[in-house]
Amino acid sequence: MDIKRFVLEKAKEAGAGARSLATASSQLKNDVLGAMAEALREHSADLIEENAKDLEYARKKGLSSAMIDRLALTGKRIDEMAGGLAAVAQLPDPVGEIITMRQRPNGMTVGRMRVPIGVIAMIYESRPNVTADASSLCLKTGNAVILRGGSEALNSNRMVVRILQGVLQQFGIHPGAVTYLDAPGHEAVLEMIKLEGLIDLVIPRGGEGLIRTVTENSRIPVLKHYKGVCHVFVDREAELKMAGDICFNAKVQRPGTCNAMETMLVDEAIAKKFLPKMLKRFAAAGVVIKGCAATRVLFPEAKKIAEGDYRMEYLDLILNVRVVKDMDEAMAHIAAYGSLHTDVIVTGDYAKAMRFVREVDSSAVLVNASTRLNDGFQFGLGAEIGISTDKIHARGPMGLEELTCTKFVVFGNGQLRQ
Amino acid sequence: MDIKRFVLEKAKEAGAGARSLATASSQLKNDVLGAMAEALREHSADLIEENAKDLEYARKKGLSSAMIDRLALTGKRIDEMAGGLAAVAQLPDPVGEIITMRQRPNGMTVGRMRVPIGVIAMIYESRPNVTADASSLCLKTGNAVILRGGSEALNSNRMVVRILQGVLQQFGIHPGAVTYLDAPGHEAVLEMIKLEGLIDLVIPRGGEGLIRTVTENSRIPVLKHYKGVCHVFVDREAELKMAGDICFNAKVQRPGTCNAMETMLVDEAIAKKFLPKMLKRFAAAGVVIKGCAATRVLFPEAKKIAEGDYRMEYLDLILNVRVVKDMDEAMAHIAAYGSLHTDVIVTGDYAKAMRFVREVDSSAVLVNASTRLNDGFQFGLGAEIGISTDKIHARGPMGLEELTCTKFVVFGNGQLRQ
Question: For A151-195, how does the pLDDT look when each residue is reduced to its tens digit (9 = 90+)?
């Protein structure tokens, strides 16, 4: 197979899909999404059959049981996947919205209209539901998507795409709107991310290594989803019951996510009152504590922390604890060791809250709320294709609006440049 | 000189500058801009002296008189440069603005606050006023800038930067906020655009070759300003007097700009009535006409067009003219040969106007107005750092807002993730 040519063909098909979608009405797109949800449910048995091939291969390859669980499709999971598509159909369509509209002194009216980006390449790992999720969000926003999932889910992904493409054709939309890059090995991906002009945006979702490789080799803009080293700073003016609940929720509610707390920073003025009880609560929940010297005086069971630990994204029931002099030291710690993802202050002091919000340079800065709330659904975006750690185009949770760009539209009556 | 280390040092200085600027008040930033304007005026003689060295070198190198003119600083040009800084001081500060603020069902309030991007690298050619312009726009938006101008303007650029840095220090801002990458050759630039994590955005301004080289080698997001192949489509329902004035303005008012018209598309239903008179007017203004077969029947003086001409950005008094069957053929032409920059329809038909606006995928789509109006000042952005041909982050004219990103800010009272 001539990989270069194959990838080029796929990108061109996606381009045709994008043109076919760009001017589709909201009603048509919603009808397609509804029909896709139905089609997934109807083809449950086929999906489970194809998924079984992936599972068998995964077991032979010796994948961990956690990974095999992520990979597995059940009737319930397929139903949830379909429900996701139906939910996207219910969201407002951002395409065509004019977000500002101003009259200029020369009488022309200048607006900014949301339009699709064009062709979006999604590179992701394992879970086959991402195939349906990403397709639905791109379709709703009038973008074509080129999907590239992990090899371990290949049969499942192929089947999902075949079902979705069938619906597209049924509604007269070019099936390239949902394209799967079905070529083995990394070469196809490396070719794809060089197709400047044919692909408009690349979104890699997965480990740091994958994202780095894509960023280093891409000539197309890449929206990155790097790790979250998230902090909660408990200020001396915090209500300690609230602080305890927020810290506990931030660490324990779902430790494997990028918006879970990795380091708790505690104001020295309240450390003695707050820490021993809090750390006992954590320990009872199975959290391993790594503490600074001051922490270990108050809670001797804590392990000794190494400086490098402050940069770790554990994604596990492990927590760094550091006692700091004041908010300035906490903000300096966050700037030095954080990943600009999600940071929280718990305080009752108005001036400190406002200063923390203004000065901490993270994608989400929260006052008196859990890090775990940094999420597209929680923030009211209706959907989420990821949490961007970039500062360009989108920062923080990315919903439908972040899958569009704007163009200027001008309504004149003969205006010239003087 | 160890180039790698030198570039790294410069980027770190800029980072220190960015931190020093990020939380500066609008008042302080405006005071600094005002003082910079004054300082440029005070040092006019020094600037002219340094500029003379560049001019001498340019003459020795045999640069064209047009290029030498662009390079030259006079008292008047320095005054205009200073005036530009003072004008930026007058613009509203986007930093800190909260653009949406919503209450969520759980009682927390979620906003999006505009914040600086961080460190922006500007790579540009010849005119030394870009050094002051770019510095002022970045400073106003709280960003540090690393400037890299053309070697032909090195002495002038160094002097401008020295003056601006003097003012920064006077106001207690880290001088790295305006950093000049003062190392000869391309190596320094190639090193700089790999400094992911230290530099947040690269904006190359110049020829297509420069932009391509930067895009292909950068690991940092690049905002591209590619060529403008702009169209005016004169529909059969156009008011022909208005159409004539718009076309003439679009081509002749300043042909050397990226938003000048390169191709005029004329509906066949009015070609006979519109074209001969229009093309005579163009010819009288010195415009060379390249025409399709139908055009040459109506205006035999037109040169025969080659297909490749339709892709040309002439930046000169040369115009492609093509007669088309209808708006669909015009839109197909724009999609096939255009550069998604600026496209215009002249029509009195409501439905066609709305369809053209919706379906043409350019950074600016205008009805009954000149292509030349696609400009930050004309659109009311107050300033312009360029016209982005990208679809990511910014599209079309980039003003101050496009030099910021947003972060989510959340005001809670103990909210947890359920």
Answer: 999 999 999 999 999 999 999 999 999 999 999 889 999 999 999
Please tell me which of the candidates A239, A378, A405 has its beta carbon nearest to residue B391.
A405
Distance separating alpha carbons of residues A60 and A54, to the nearest angstrom: 10
Distance CA A311, CA A338 (A): 7
- Over residues A303-347, the pLDDT tens digits come to 999 999 999 999 999 999 999 999 999 999 999 999 999 999 999
**Predicted TM-score (pTM) above 0.90:** yes
Q: Do B414 and A254 touch (CB under 8 A)?
A: no
Q: What is the domain range of residue B270?
A: 230-378
Best interface-test mutation with A: which of B97, B200, B415, B418 has the largest number of A CBs within 10 A?
Answer: B415
pLDDT digits (tens, 9 = 90+) for B234-290: 999 999 999 999 999 999 999 999 999 999 999 999 999 999 999 999 999 999 999
Split into its structural domains, chain A has a count of 2
Both A210 and A240 in one domain: the answer is: no
Residues B194 and B265 in one domain: no
Report the C-alpha gap between A320 and A16 in whole angstroms: 51
Residue A68 included in any domain: yes
Which DSSP helix (H) or strand (E) runs through A215?
A: helix A208-217
- A117 and B390 in contact by Cβ < 8 A? no
Averaged pLDDT, groups of 10, chain B, 418 residues long = 93 97 95 98 98 96 89 95 95 95 96 97 89 96 96 96 98 98 92 95 90 92 92 98 98 95 98 98 98 98 97 96 98 96 98 97 97 95 89 94 96 97
How far apart are alpha carbons B54 and B60 in whole angstroms? 10
pLDDT-flagged residues of chain A (< 50): none
CA distance A318 to chain B (A): 19
Q: Which of A115, A415, A418 to mutate to test the interface with B (most CBs of B within 10 A)?
A: A415
Do A10 and A81 lie in one domain? The reply is yes
Paired tokens of B332: 């197909």
Q: Are residues A192 and A297 located together in one domain of the fold?
A: no
Which residue is associated with the tokens 């379909």? A82
| Shared domain check, B272 and B364 | yes
Closest to A376 measured CA to CA, from A363, A364, A386 = A386
B314 CA to chain A: closest CA distance, Å?
Answer: 19
* Same domain (yes/no): A234, A202: no
Q: What is the CA radius of gyration of chain A?
A: 24
> For residue A388, what are the β-bridge partners?
A396
Distance between CA atoms of B160 and A25, rounded to whole angstroms? 53
Q: Is the dihedral of CA B311, B316, B318, B321 positive or negative?
A: positive
How distant, in Å, are the alpha carbons of A227, A271, A371 from that of A236? 29, 8, 19
Q: Are B58 and B178 in contact (CB under 8 A)?
A: no
Residues A140, A85 contacting (CB under 8 angstroms)? no
| CATH number, domain with residue A362 | 3.40.309.10
